[in-house]
Amino acid sequence: MASITGGKAVVESLQAEGVSHVFGLIGSAGMEIFDALFDASDIRFIGVRDERTGVHMADGYARASGQAGVFLAGQNGPGATNLVTGLAQAHAAYSPVVALAGSLSSSHIHRDAFQEVDQQSLFKPITKKTLMLTQSARIPEMVREAFRVALSPRRGPVVVNLPRDLLAETLESAGAPASECRRSDGGFTASRALLEKARALLAGAKRPLILAGGGVKNSRCGEAVLDLAALLEAPVVTSPGHGDAVSCNHRLYAGQVGPRGNAVASDLAKRADVILALGTRLGFNTTFYTYDNLSKDARIIQVESEPTAIGRFFPVEVGVLAAAGDVTRDLVAALSGHEPAKEVTDWTHTFVAARAALLEQRDADAGEGTDPLQPGFLFKTLRKVIPDDAMFTMDAGTLCLQATDNMRYVRPPSLFTPLDFGLVGFSYACGLGVKLACPDRTVVSLMGDGGFGMAHSEIGTAVQYGINTVCIVMNNGCWGAEKAYQRDFFGERYIGADVPNPPYDKLAELWGARGFRVDRAADLAGAVAEAIACGKPAIVDVSVDPNALYSFRRDSFKHRAKNG
């Protein structure tokens, strides 16, 4: 058997896992891995400008592909600490990111060495598992374990800390064996008794509702959910950030529910008598943990692959520990031939009319375009111009929160957001990872100007590697959510809210990308269409009315309402 370095063993282990892309930032602690990647013609290395945004790329790649996204931090200390925000984001989104972090030499640990930090303790709270390599011979085992843990229910990020001296050691290579890791969202099977109870509740419902969450999107079972909805004549609402769990083109699609959703979907959740919650925790963004956003009288059937999620926030009539797709297909079979009662068809007919009216009113309220440009008109234009194959990435922030339920998600998966971590600065880098996972689809990233200011160095990565996404910067010159709170609850005492920006279209051109500037509503559609068609990374800097602000978290400032 040939002798290889520990760095080469890492790369062979990645090849055994079928890895085709590695995102990373070069550093001296991981040089043996980078050198081995030079010869790995089956792995494309994407060198990034910052470890945080690089992890967002790996996160987007993971969510779009359904496989693990791999990030390689070549430097211990600061290179590793820069991973924290990206890993915390992936952890909140249950995204299977495998981060390989260079670490200081084994003999230097606990000696206040150069760039020393306790990486094991640092990453433990924000990962599903954190591993520390102790012997070079265990590299294949450690890498296999990282992928197994990251991809098993419930998915999440894993870090492997790799001391530089162990990467430099030589070991015998037998060739890394093909991985036996199974990419699965299941692992548990619903009992016949639970399925029968769920079937009976759904069949007897007068106002049935299906609430589809991340478990539906991640297991790609949206078609089965729509088959079930059609059998039951039940509207389908989605949890926030998962508006693409099923195709928006279906007549039973209602959009996102809860405080950050739309009025029609939210009203359904408040009035349903039976709710089938598929792959959702019924968590904060969906409910704010109150019955203000959920019918207190509804009998809930909750299907989850994570046992601690079932009945955690709301009592359930039936709790099923299994994959959303498996249970959905079983219910479709069990309800074959079901004929909905007139009360059910009336419920659905009323919903369909209300949904159509909502969409019509959105377009009417958006108008035909006035200056300064309003967010509603921007969203209306994007609905018309952006093709049906589009995949959207979003930031947190007031404009992106408004945009999330306004876009059309025709081909799941097609929406990638920060979810519960609420991160600003996520969208652009995430979009680059999504595009690499799905190169034949249009990828559009929406961001505010503040968030884009955190991420624009990755234009260089997009240009260098030919990653042709379109980023639409909704530029209102401020941190919009916070300025809205200062306006509505703090007597317009503005501090730190305004953000002077360079012309981002010119910045894009300096990087070698295409830049477009939109200062008038009349120019918007043409600029976006040209950006999509240009065949290069594109940035569209859109001036949005700085007074078009909205306070989403009004509940957080009830104590200051007298100032609003």
Short description:
This protein is an alpha/beta fold. It is 39% helix and 17% strand. The strands form four sheets. The chain has a six-stranded parallel sheet with strand order 3-2-4-5-7-6, with helices on both faces. A six-stranded parallel sheet has the order 11-10-9-12-13-14, sandwiched between helices.
Q: Count the helices. How many?
A: 23
- Tell me the overall shape: globular
Helix content: 25-40%
CATH superfamily of the largest domain: Thiamin diphosphate (ThDP)-binding fold, Pyr/PP domains
How many beta-strand elements? 20
The first-level CATH class name of the largest domain: Alpha Beta
Structural commentary:
- By secondary structure, the chain is α/β, with parallel strands linked by helices.
- It folds into 3 domains: 2-173, 3-Layer(aba) Sandwich (Rossmann fold); 192-354, Rossmann fold, CATH 3.40.50.1220; 367-563, 3-Layer(aba) Sandwich (Rossmann fold), CATH 3.40.50.
- Helix content is 39%, strand content 17%.
- A 6-stranded parallel beta sheet has the order 3-2-4-5-7-6, with helices on both faces.
- α23 links the parallel β19 (514-518) and β20 (538-543).
- α3 (51-65) packs parallel to α5 (84-92), α9 (192-204) packs across α14 and α16 crosses α23.
- The longest helix is centred in the middle third of the chain and has 25 residues, at 342-366.
- The mean pLDDT is 94.
Which labels suit this protein?
about 575 residues; alpha/beta; Rossmann fold; 3 domains; six-stranded parallel sheet
